[in-house]
Structure formats: structure tokens, C-alpha cells
Amino acid sequence: MTQDYPHPITPPPELVARWKDYWFDAKIKHINLEDYILAQAAQWGADQELESSIELLKADGYKALARDLRAARRPKPLTVKEQAIAVLEDAGVNAAHYNILLRALEALND
Description:
The protein has two domains: 13-73; 77-110. The chain is built from five helices and no strands. The protein has helices at 13-25, 33-59, 63-73, 80-91, 95-107. The longest helix has 27 residues, at 33-59.
């Protein structure tokens, strides 16, 4: 069985060029170019597969399941406010101080 290349999930050359430019423009290099491109391509491919799956679910009427799938597979990072509240919960401060600090944190904008 033969397969035509590029595979449908191969990143477009323009995107690979953008990744290269980003790597070359980076002030600090924590990874070599090939490993960086490989990691970016793997993430891009996973994102493409997830989006395809979500579109299929939506087309079949499973919008809630599609939303849950995206939330589970690509969770949004906590805001600084949410991080501070999590730290407060682990801090072990007495109840009065906890309540004062929690109210102050909750009053802040995200």
C-alpha cells in the first residue's frame, strides 16, 4: 500500500517556517531547533485531531460532549487570582485570616 505525501496532518510549510523564525529569534535556547520543530509539530497535529473530533461530535448533535472534550483535553490555565486562592487554601491559616484574605482575593479582577 502506498501513501501520497504530505500526509493530511502534515503542518504547512509556512507554519514550519514561522516556528523556525520564532526559534531563531528567541533570546534563550532551551532546546535545539529539530526538537523544537518536532514538539511544535506534535502539538499542532494533536490540536488538528482534537478539532476534527470536536467538529464530528458537533455535527452529530453532541455539542455538550464536544465542549467537555475540549475542556478536558485543553484545559485553560488558572488565572493569577485562582492560583492565589489555591495557595491560600493550602496555607493553613486560621479561619478568620483565611476569610479576610479570601474576600480580598475574590474582590480582585481577573
